[in-house]
Amino acid sequence: MARKNQTYRYPAEHYTVPENSIGYLARIVFRSFSRLLERKTLLHDVSAGQWRFLRQLWREDGITQRELSERVGMREPTTVVALKGLEKAGFITRKKTADDRRKTFIHLTPHAKELELILAPMNAEVHDVATRGMTDEEVETLRALMRRVIDNLAEETSKLSVLTDVKA
Fold first, then answer.
1. Which CATH class, in words, describes the domain spanning 22-159?
2. 3 state SS of 106
3. Contact, 54 vs 119, CB < 8 A?
4. What is the pLDDT of residue 96?
5. For the chain, which residues make up each domain, given as ranges?
6. Which residues of 62-91 are buried (b: 16+ CB within 10 A; e: fewer)?
7. Looking at the DSSP assignment, which residues form a beta bridge with residue 95?
8. Contacts of 66 (CB under 8 A, 6+ apart)
9. Is the pLDDT of residue 168 over 50?
10. Residue 133 region, left (φ>0) first, then alpha (ψ -120 to 50), else beta?
């Protein structure tokens, strides 16, 4: 919520121009990156949405549905729908353990494990396209600045009420 007499880096009207908004630019970058990557991954029947989950599972296979949901940054109901699609496509299996029947563990199929070696270079290629004309130092600066923006926003968001606590 804006405070009285709040001073900002630029006047508030500055951010009504989309190209001046970091959020707008980040969204355009994300959409462009995802679109180009998906054009490549679809050759192997992997959508952009499926890619996000597979990438996390390649890093750590056999995590719980809740952990996967947190790592991908999606709400659990959305994750459940995505996992049904991944299972139907033959990329994952879901298992419960005798220890705790409430937890569902997600495991990659052998086919999905093999896809990492095929799809990872496609991701690297899109990164190269996106950072064309930048030095290694500029790319690292870009990453560091983006991480700082993410951390700043996460810190501020953590101070807010839970969405379900706020009346619509």
1. mainly alpha
2. strand
3. yes
4. 84
5. 22-159
6. ebebeebbebbebeeeebeebbeebeeeeb
7. 105
8. 76, 103
9. no
10. left
